[in-house]
UniProtKB/TrEMBL annotation, chains A, B:
GO CC terms, sorted: cytosol
Species in which this protein is naturally found: Snodgrassella alvi
Protein name: S-formylglutathione hydrolase
Top enzyme category: hydrolase
Reaction catalyzed: S-formylglutathione + H2O = formate + glutathione + H(+)
Family label: Belongs to the esterase D family.
Pfam family, one: Esterase
Length: 280, 280
């Protein structure tokens, strides 16, 4: 068995959009991910990577199809990697709500039944997927994170817990203080149990207060986002970051909502932000 | 009852992406369409319109979500209108294949049972929808057409049959000679009957031979498109156009396929082409 299996490839902005399946040793199931390789990567140059994390209900494909990021990744010479948002399959635990279970892994390592066997998305995104990417694709060791909504939570949280591994992080409408909203509270109760001390290690607002990072942070938030502020609380995160002197840019975008139309409007500035952090 | 009912609106590139429902007198059913209004339209300036026609299986939303056209429509100050590709509903005739019936109207006026009652997409796109758009939105009388696959057929065919109404037409992987491929043959047989003389009036290669247009034409085609050339035959159309001295640009794009990834790669050049035709 090959370690990764190519499912589809499409020429895109003179590079290639590809989708792969592989067996995840952390999640103990088959996983899919997508990758965008600019032409310079296809020529063999080792390029930096932005890991792009999706939100609730998304697979790896939503960001690929809707964000428009590849146009700018092609211009700058940046590889994009889009993971799925959870383990999948008929043998994988699930719930009847969109904010828990398949499509809603919240980028944590579950400790509770019935989630513990497959829901190890933190280790998957931090360790397993970068190992695969760095083994099979022409990338260098410059990494950053970008995410939308639940993926914005994942991007901020993972970067803050691993400041030595990432050069920047950006987020669109992130769940920036998950322990303060019902999405985060319900997911963390299910995956991590009732002890709120176990939630704090995955809460970006808690993390940035305890350990302000050396890298820059960019956040965009739509002013008419239907989940703002109750589920997202970016202002809590930004206040904590500024109090600690972190290099953070925060834009409240008038009249924008939570959709990928919002993401696609500002994705150019996010990819440029990552390019700057990579020294391109 | 209002003539058009707003279903959704999203801020996008400082303008608005909106979706509407209305009752179509030609198709005798409710129809949906989408429209992108740049900020200058929201300020009340009357702008030119590109009608963007979708392909087989698409609704009005595929082009909205996947093409990336709005970024450039916003820059140029162009309104985009995306119609659905057929009538819809449980009372509307359908077929068990993706290339006929709902999602596959082929932009013709059906004359045969069971299609004749609802499948009047030619009159809908040429007459009814522009009347609605010009009544309800800040547009001027500058119109053009763009389409993908079956929508490329629709765009070329409608422009060629109405050269006084349109200033330009562009297409991605159009079904440019439908009477020469099985998609077109099967659809025209169903909608128009067995008499092939009735097909020719909707065949772009036949039309351009008989009546070469005064407006410019732009076509992009992917070289590894899975439907090229058997269903599409752009080379027949281009040869006929060049023989007649038509202003046509044709690009065979190496390694690109039939998907919206291909469309999104070249949409910027198409919107610029329309802008030039509008004198922007």
């Amino acid at each position: 068995m090959p370690e990764i299996t190519l499912l589809a490839t499409h020429q895109l902005f003179n590079g290639e959009q590809r989708r792969y399946r592989h067996y995840s040793r952390y999640n103990q199931c088959d996983m899919t991910f997508s990758v965008y390789l600019p032409s310079r990567a296809l020529q063999g140059y080792r390029l930096p990577v932005v890991y792009c994390l999706g939100g609730l209900t998304c697979t790896d494909e939503n960001f690929c199809i809707k964000s428009g990021a590849q146009r700018f990744a092609a211009e700058w010479g940046i590889v994009l990697v889009m993971p799925d948002t959870s383990p999948r399959g008929t043998d994988v635990a699930d719930a009847n709500i969109y904010s828990l279970g398949q499509g809603a892994g919240f980028y944590v390592n579950a400790t509770q039944q019935p989630w513990v066997q497959h829901y190890q998305m933190y280790d998957y995104v931090v360790t397993e997927l970068p190992e695969l990417i760095e083994k099979h694709f022409p990338v260098n060791e410059q990494r950053s994170l970008c995410g939308h909504s639940m993926g914005g939570h994942g991007a901020l949280m993972i970067a803050l817990k691993n400041p030595q591994r990432y050069l920047a992080v950006s987020a669109f409408a992130p769940i920036a203080h998950p322990i303060a909203g019902t999405w985060g509270q319900e997911a963390f109760t299910a995956y991590l149990g009732e002890n709120q001390a176990d939630w704090a290690v995955y809460d970006s607002t808690e993390l940035i207060t305890q350990n302000p990072p050396p890298f820059p942070i960019l956040i965009d938030q739509g002013s008419v986002d239907e989940y703002y502020p109750a589920q997202l609380h970016p202002q809590d995160f930004v206040q904590a970051a500024r109090f600690k002197g972190v290099n953070i840019r925060y834009h409240l975008r008038k009249d924008y909502d939570h959709s990928y139309y919002f993401v696609s409007t500002f994705i150019e500035s996010h990819i440029s932000f990552h390019a700057e952090a990579f020294g391109l």
